[in-house]
Amino acid sequence: MNITAYIDPGSGSYLVQMIIAGILGIAFYFKTIWATFKSFFGGKKETPSKDEEKNG
Amino acid sequence: MDKIQKHPASYRDPSGFVFLYEGKYYRQVNQCFKHDYILLKESGLYDRLVKEKKLIPHIELDEDLNQSPEWHCTLLPEQIRFPSWPYEWCFGQLKDAALLTLNILKEAIQHGMILKDATPFNIQFKNGRPVFIDTLSFEKYDVAQPWIAYRQFTESFIVPLLLCVYRSPEMLKLLQVYPDGIPLSLASKWLPLRSRFNFNVFLHIFLQNRIAQKSNRTSATQPAFSRTKLLNIVNNLSSFVSGMQLKKVKTTWNHYYDETVLDEKYVNDKLSIVTAWLKEIPVKTLLDTGTNTGLFAKAAATHAETVIAIDSDTDCIDSLYKHCKQTGNTNILPLLIDICQPTPSTGWRNEERISFLSRCGVGMVLALAIIHHLVIGKNVPLQQVAETLSSLTEYLIIEFVPKEDEKVKRMILHRKDIFPYYTVKAFEDTFSFFFEVLHKVRVGDTERLLFLMKKKN
After folding, report:
1. A20-47 pLDDT per residue, tens
2. Residues of A in Cβ contact (< 8 Å) with B207
3. Mean of the pLDDT values across residues B64-79?
4. Is residue B230 pLDDT above 70, yes or no?
5. For residue A20, which residues of chain B lie inside 8 Å, CB to CB?
6. CB pair distance less than 8 Å for B211 and A19
């Protein structure tokens, strides 16, 4: 963690963000697969939101 | 030369500090922050945020007013007319402040910078909208690092908002006790069991708290973070906060004008009298005490530059804030303040965030139908009400609600009448000691009286 910071990041903050980012990454992956699956079988076409596109 | 006063709350961040000079607030940028400050300007982030009215604009001065060896430059930011503190905001205001912080964070990342802190005290309300005021919160973004202020953001924004959603909006006042954020360990006790089944609440509160409690060691080798990972978290936080909604509740006050025993003629009469007086006495800043859903604050907003509309009812203030946002009313500042329990001075040495009454020198006060709540409801002596109001304002529009009024009758129905002095005559005599009565009018067909008064010199 950035040791030049003037605020206390809190204990385990690095690990927390690694885990949360990992979980969100997996969730996004499955969401994309589900959207593709639905559009393939003729469901309503779903496109990831603008925010998701940016980080995807 | 006027004395320079360093702002008592501006001591945490070594990047610079805020000071008061000749009645204006300035910000000194220190040498140690020079490179980040230059990056803020050269990356285009400052211009972009100012253009979008998200960051307070400033003028850069090449004058070392503090004669300090650490000086790099001096900034004169646009001044905030009436500073407010997060524990005076309603749910909607804190939510918008949270979304603004996240939005600025995303823009900063796109410009190769990041927010090094995330506290609601970095935000003020200007022209009805939240604006980021801490120009020194931006630093160069290191893609291998996560967000240093993630915990601070969670505890200062997410926890109080969730406590509003799952418990009660009154819980926002907890920020007065925990200005650095409500600890996760407390939040996980206070949030109900059902909140754990919400994916985002589980992730950002319960999981974070669990890991924080177990992790006391820092590993020497940490895997690198990435921009994508950080954006995943920031985008998730944005959609999490955007989706937060309060449950519709009925409070004592939020349907006051719909259900009150007072008829339409009374309300219309009162509105036309107050409006005429507002036209007669133009003022810059007006304080509407006990604003309810802001009927009179809205009328005042067409005559005064700034209307501070206060009430102790969370739902009333939230409704007024929503109304102002929807209608584009930019000069009303709704705040959750009980005039009987105004915000005290808080923080280190009780100097960091000054009390409501110390901030409150205004041109006019509206005190409509609150006198009976103060004198009979709270036992405040008439003399103290008059003295306090005279310390706040030059002009006063006050409504006297006599004992014969239905509302007052109800208030003393189940208690001993210890208010023999609560009469129109005593009211006028007491207030005449501090104010000169300019107008006195009966409202509608009621016994209620409206007074326009001017403070005596």
Report:
1. 999 998 888 888 888 888 888 776 554 5
2. 16, 19-20
3. 93
4. yes
5. 203-204, 207-208, 233, 236
6. yes
Residue A10 near residue B212 (C-beta atoms within 8 A): yes
pLDDT at residue B130, as a whole number: 97
- Residue B78: DSSP 8-state: P
| Separation between Cα atoms, residue B455 and residue B87, nearest integer Å | 31
**For residues A5 and B388, what is the distance between their CA atoms, to the nearest angstrom?**
44
When CB atoms are compared, the residue of A15, A22, A28 closest to B211 is A15
| B432-to-B40, B281, B361, B421, B456 alpha-carbon distances in Å | 56, 19, 20, 15, 9
Instruction: Give dist(CA B42, CA B65) in Å, integer.
Output: 25
Q: Is the domain covering B256-455 a CATH 1.10.3720.10 domain?
A: no
Adjacent-strand bridge partners of B454? B395, B436
Residue A26 contacts B where some CB pair is shorter than 8 Å:
no
Is residue B129's pLDDT more than 90? Answer: yes
Q: Where are the domains of chain B?
A: 5-77, 86-242, 256-455
**B447: distance to nearest CA of chain A, Å?**
58
- pTM of the full predicted structure? 0.91
Distance from CA of A56 to the nearest CA of B (A): 7
ipTM of the predicted structure? 0.76
Residues of A in contact with B215 (CB under 8 A): 11-12, 15
Whether the per-residue pLDDT at A4 is higher than 80: the answer is no
Within a 10 A sphere around the Cβ of B61, how many other Cβ atoms? 13
CA torsion sign for B55, B57, B60, B64 is negative
Count, residues in chain B:
457
**β-pairing, B58-61 with B71-77?**
antiparallel
The two three-digit tokens of residue B163, written as one number: 């406590």
Amino acid in the structure at residue B212: A
pLDDT of B252 > 80? The answer is: no
pLDDT at B181 over 50: yes
CB distance B148–A24 less than 8 Å?
no
**Dmax over Cα atoms in chain A, in whole Å?**
53
Chain B residues with CB-CB distance to A16 below 8 A: 150-151, 207-208, 211-212
Assess B185–A contact: CB distance below 8 Å, yes or no: no
Q: Is the pLDDT of residue B216 over 80?
A: no
Chain A touched by B218 (CB under 8 Å): yes
How far CA B419 is from CA of B369, B378, B405, B408, B451, in Å, comes to: 17, 12, 14, 11, 21
Residues of B within 8 A of A15 (CB-CB) are: 211, 215
pLDDT in tens, B3-19: 888 898 888 888 999 99
State CA A53 to chain mean position distance. 11
Torsional class of B233: left (φ above 0), alpha (ψ -120 to 50), beta (otherwise): alpha
